[in-house]
Amino acid sequence: MLSTVLQYLEEKHCCPHCSGDLTLCHSPSVHVGDGLGWGSEYLFICLNDSCPLFVKGWDYIANQYGHVGSYRYMEVPNSKENYNMMVVGRDAFTGNVVDVEALKRQNVRYQRQQEALAALGTCVAEKRLEPVLTLLLDESVRIDDRKRAVALLEPLNDLACVEPLRSHTFRDPHLEQEVNLAIGKLLANHFLKECPYCAELIKSRATVCKHCQRELSA
Question: DSSP character for 22?
């Protein structure tokens, strides 16, 4: 996706009505003319409010159809298709402008996810907790992949996972339950428990927390 966008941004597209540069935008999900998609994730659109097509379009549509609206010129990438697309307001498509920096961040996140997934098969042998945490703490990762990661918490036997996982807000309650069960088993393997008052790890047989000095129920 990012490579496609960067390629498009290198292209020069001009509006034949105002000679202004066209802006790369995410295409609407539906083509209002035929109800089908555009066949492209992106469109080059003239967002110049001073463009003659846009300026004159208001009166034309009002006189011809009795509606409020105008036109913006657009072109479909990798195609000779171009349209005078009817719009109903001045803000039309302005919210669809491609945010390249956001796409770069998404691309970095996606690459990190793929690297973590590829490492799941060897992370226990290599004693690497990072790939597991990367997947569990990213809410955009597929739930099945996150459940694969949960299953590796106990074999990894690394207490460093407790604090980041406890501090994370899980959207999926079932996944959260699996994480809590895995943490419980991990703590039991180390003969530890969490203080109910300060959340620090203490010996499972402790009756007083060594961190907050609170007495603990048996």
Answer: P
Distances (CA, A) of 137 to 58, 74, 155, 169, 187: 49, 40, 18, 9, 20
Helices (H), 120-161: 130-136, 143-150, 153-156
The pLDDT value recorded for residue 34 is 47
**Contact partners, residue 86, CB within 8 Å, separation at least 6:** 32, 57, 61, 69, 70, 71
Residue with tokens 């509006």: 15
**CA distance linking residue 181 with residue 170, whole number of Å:** 14
CB atoms within 10 A of CB 92: 19
Q: Supply the pLDDT for residue 38.
A: 66
Paired strand residues for 97: 25
**pLDDT score of 218:** 63
Which contacts of 76-79 are long-range, i.e. CB under 8 A and separated by 24 or more positions? 76/38, 76/39, 76/40, 76/43, 76/44, 77/8, 77/11, 77/40, 77/42, 77/43, 77/44, 78/40, 79/39, 79/40
Q: What would the pLDDT profile of 99-125 be if each residue is shown by its tens digit?
A: 878 878 888 888 999 999 999 999 999
Residue 46 phi, psi dihedral angles, 5° rounding: -85, 115
Report residues of the chain scoring pLDDT below 50: 32-35
pTM recorded for the entire structure: 0.64
